[in-house]
Amino acid sequence: MKYTRLTKEQFEELHQEFINFLATQSVTADEWTNLKENRPELAEMELDVFSDLIWEGALNAAKYLEHLSPNQMHLFYLNDTNMHVIGVKVKNDKDITTTEGYNWLRDNLMNDDVEFLQAKKDYSDDKNLDKFKLIQQGAVITKGDLFRYFDRLIN
Q1: CA-to-CA distance for 40 and 42, rounded, in angstroms?
Q2: Per UniProt, what is one Pfam family of this protein (predicted)?
Q3: Which domain holds residue 145?
């Protein structure tokens, strides 16, 4: 397995897609039930393959990631050749993951306690695995509004 298995909730959300996936494997509902009961290791493999397919599709489509922690924000634009990251660091005790802290940041962007940085990083041989590692570290896929806002602000 290349990524991680989807959660039970994710499988429930993707129930119809999983049925379609099994159909492409020529596995009927009865055969799936039989497989789970009599060959659980094969059923587990099917779940893993489906999970990887879903992750691969999501990672291919992802163009922006955001990772927020109490005093830092990392905003990623994922283009074809590299990642452009904008970092925002708050050097005081404001927690930007709270409404109050985020509002403070928004109102005090030019304060000496706010530091910006940006960089570009080339992908490794596996671009999607690079993206996935960021997600495992806490980043989430977004539409890029924050990235574009800060990109306009500092560039």
Answers
A1: 5
A2: DUF6495
A3: 64-154
Give the whole-angstrom CA distance, residue 4 versus residue 63.
Answer: 20
- Per DSSP, the three-state class of 19 is helix
Domain count, the chain: 2
Instruction: List CB contacts of 47: < 8 A, sequence separation 6 or more.
Output: 5, 6, 11
pLDDT tens for residues 83-97?
999 999 999 999 999
* CB atoms near residue 50 (< 10 Å): 20
pTM: 0.87
Residue 86, phi-psi category: left (phi > 0), alpha (psi -120 to 50), beta (remainder): beta
Quick check: 87 and 116 in contact, CB under 8 A? Answer: yes
CA of 44: how far to CAs of 9, 37, 54, 127, in Å?
16, 11, 15, 26
In a domain, 3, yes or no: no
Q: Judge if 74 and 105 occupy the same domain.
A: yes
pLDDT of residue 97: 95
